[in-house]
Every structure is written in structure tokens, then in C-alpha cells.
From TrEMBL:
It comes from the Bacteria. Residues 4-185 form the UmuC domain. Monomer. It catalyses: DNA(n) + a 2'-deoxyribonucleoside 5'-triphosphate = DNA(n+1) + diphosphate. SUPFAM superfamilies: DNA/RNA polymerases, Lesion bypass DNA polymerase (Y-family), little finger domain. This is DNA polymerase IV. It comes from Oceanospirillum sediminis.
Length: 359
């Protein structure tokens, strides 16, 4: 049984604007082009949506619906920088990540050993790390396939976490509106509505031959989706370039001894476990990451000659190297820290492509 997480940032561009300008909180905010230049809304927050503002709506129309709407010009470099941090968090949890867009991804955690394989706890960690490192909330859905995971992620927005368990699928699907099926737009929904079909239970009563007669090949997809069926795999073309683990602390650490204990007792054991499947990869260095109390970040690297991961793991019985990196890092910022991370840098070699095939 697969365990799929769908992660979707909440009103991403607008959320970044509210993060960077706290005065925007609780006010209707949208990112988009100017009304006098025939601009359109790219993203809007939930306060704006309450007024009927929607993505892809002409800005002029949005301003008519919500005269107090605060329109922010797009800052794509900032959005991309934030999205890159979030993607790295995804890949710290699993290699099986399919990035769908700048603010959305699927994660296959079926083989993930974190938290004894609990997809719910993995998703909770994901949400905590994203908000801690970026100030952005995400909604996540968990189920046995991509379709149901995506439906689940939209169920308790914003900042939601919803699980559709295998045993609940048959009871969940009949009441689901057909508009919730990805790919069912206004035209398809209208064609179904004129036939008296508005939810998946009603759609389940239609035969496969009828649906393919009405919609061609996409009729077969509708036949499967209304039953909660989706055979698509989570696909990724990314080649792993690093392996790392991080911890964000509820209370800032103040003393180096505390930090060393975290490295010894938490980070290194998890790093070794996470790196073990990559025993054939070659390593070009170690690094330690620190986020200080003022949210500034520093990373200290230690390069090594080309070495095999298997040999490094066999010799990584103590944290002397990382303690040295920690001493260097602590000279670069305040004494209090809120995050510690350790990891390996990997060589860009053909070994990595072969490794991906194991999944």
C-alpha cells in the first residue's frame, strides 16, 4: 500500500508578501498586475477570497469586488528563493518527490523509515519545518494515491492536514463533488450537471462505455477517479546532491555542550541511517548548518578527497569533525541557535542515476 503526501502552500505568493510585511496580515491581499495595464490576479489570500477575488481574475474586476484590496507587484525571485528552501525540506524526507509547480509537490513516503514509517508524523514534521524555516504554512493531504492525496490537501485549508485512509475511501467518495476531480473544469462539470451528475456517487452509476462515449479517453479517467482509483506513480528526475538532517528547537540552544549532545544523539544517528541506502555514492565533503536566534543562517563546509560513502559511514563513529565545524559556525552569529543541521555533499557521478532506479 502506497503512502502519498500532497503538499500545497497556502496562497503562496500572497503568503510571502504577508510574511515580509506583517502589516498586511488580516487584510485582503493579492499579487498581480496593475489594473490600468490589463493585469490579472496571480494569487490572493483568504481575506481577499472572501470578497470573491480569485486567481486569474482581471485585476480591475478584483478591485471592483474588493475596493480595499492591497495589490502587490510580483517578486518572483523572492518566491523562487522561498520555494527552493521548501523543496529542500521535501527532499530531506524522501527522494521520491514530484514537484508539480513552484508551490506544490507530491511525496511518496512509502519506503520512508522516519517515525517508523508514519506518513502522518512525516507530514507533521514537514509542516513544522516549512513554517519554521520559511514562515509559510502549507496544507497537506495523505492517502494511497496522488488523486486522493490532492483532494485531501484541499480539505482543511489553510494550514490543514487531512488523511483519507484506505478503509475510508468507499465511504468518502460518493459525496465528493465531481468538480473536486482534477481536470474536471467548468465545461466538463456542466456536461455532467445537465445529466444530473454532481457528485462521485452519481458518477459511479454511469458505465465505463457511457463515459468514454461522452468524453473519449478522459471518460476512463473519470470512471477511475470517482472510485478513488489512481495508478500514477510519483515521478522525479532529480539526482540527489546531498544528504542531510536538521532539527529546529522549541527553545533556542544556548550552550555548546547542548548542541554537541544533539549532534551525537540525534543528528548523526539519523544521518547515518538516511545515508546507508547510498553506500555506493561518493562523498566530496561534510557540512554543518546553523540558524541563529536572529534567523540568520550559516553553513560551514569541510571538503574531503573523493571517498566512498560506505567507507565514511564505517568510520563515522564520533562527532569530532562536526564539533570542529560547530565551533567555526558559532563564531559567525549570536550565541543562541534555533536550528542545527548536518550532512554530506555528494559527487555528481553516474552512480546517482543508477541509485535512483532502486526506488
Amino acid at each position: 500500500m502506497r503512502k502519498i503526501i500532497h503538499a500545497d502552500c497556502d496562497c503562496f505568493f500572497a503568503a510571502v508578501e504577508m510574511r515580509d510585511n506583517p502589516d498586511l496580515k488580516d487584510k485582503p491581499v493579492a499579487v498581480g498586475g496593475a489594473a490600468d495595464k490589463r493585469g490579472v490576479i496571480s494569487t490572493c489570500n483568504y481575506a481577499a477570497r472572501a470578497w470573491g477575488v480569485r486567481s486569474a481574475m482581471p485585476t480591475a474586476q478584483a478591485l471592483r469586488l474588493c475596493p480595499q484590496l492591497i495589490l502587490c507587484p510580483s517578486r518572483m525571485p523572492v518566491y523562487k528563493e522561498t520555494a527552493a528552501v521548501i523543496r529542500e525540506i521535501f527532499f530531506q524526507l524522501t527522494d521520491r518527490v514530484e514537484v508539480v509547480s513552484i508551490d506544490e509537490a507530491y511525496l511518496d513516503v512509502s519506503q520512508c523509515e522516519l517515525f517508523q514509517g508514519s506518513a502522518t508524523r512525516i507530514a507533521q514534521r514537514l509542516k513544522q519545518e516549512v513554517v519554521s524555516q520559511t514562515g509559510i504554512t502549507i496544507s497537506v493531504g495523505i492517502s494511497v494515491n496522488k488523486f486522493l492525496a490532492k483532494v485531501a490537501s484541499d480539505w482543511q485549508k489553510p494550514d490543514g492536514l487531512f488523511v483519507i485512509h484506505p478503509e475510508d475511501i468507499n465511504g468518502f467518495m460518493p459525496d465528493l463533488a465531481v468538480r473536486k476531480i482534477p481536470g474536471v473544469g467548468a465545461v466538463t462539470a456542466e456536461k455532467l450537471a445537465v445529466r444530473g451528475i454532481e457528485n462521485c456517487g452519481q458518477l459511479q452509476a454511469v458505465s465505463l462505455s457511457e463515459l468514454t462515449g461522452w468524453f473519449g479517453k478522459s471518460g476512463g479517467t473519470l470512471y477511475e477517479r470517482c472510485r478513488g482509483i489512481d495508478y500514477r506513480e510519483v515521478t522525479t528526475e532529480r539526482i540527489r546532491k546531498s544528504i542531510s538532517v536538521e532539527r529546529t528547537f522549541a527553545c533556542n540552544l544556548k550552550h555548546p555542550d547542548e548542541m554537541i549532545q544533539v549532534i551525537n544523539n540525534q543528528l548523526l544517528p539519523e544521518l547515518i541511517a538516511r545515508a546507508s541506502p547510498y553506500a555506493s555514492r561518493r562523498v566530496r565533503g561534510f557540512f554543518l548548518k546553523v540558524r541563529f536566534a536572529d534567523f540568520s543562517v550559516t553553513t560551514v563546509d569541510h571538503s574531503i578527497s573523493d571517498s566512498c560513502m560506505k567507507d565514511i559511514l564505517a568510520s563515522l563513529g564520533n562527532s569530532e569533525l562536526f564539533q570542529s565545524l560547530l565551533r567555526d559556525a558559532l563564531q559567525r552569529g549570536p550565541s543562541d541557535i534555533r536550528l542545527l543541521g548536518t550532512g554530506f555533499r555528494l559527487q555528481d557521478e553516474g552512480y546517482s542515476v543508477q541509485q535512483l532506479s532502486l526506488f
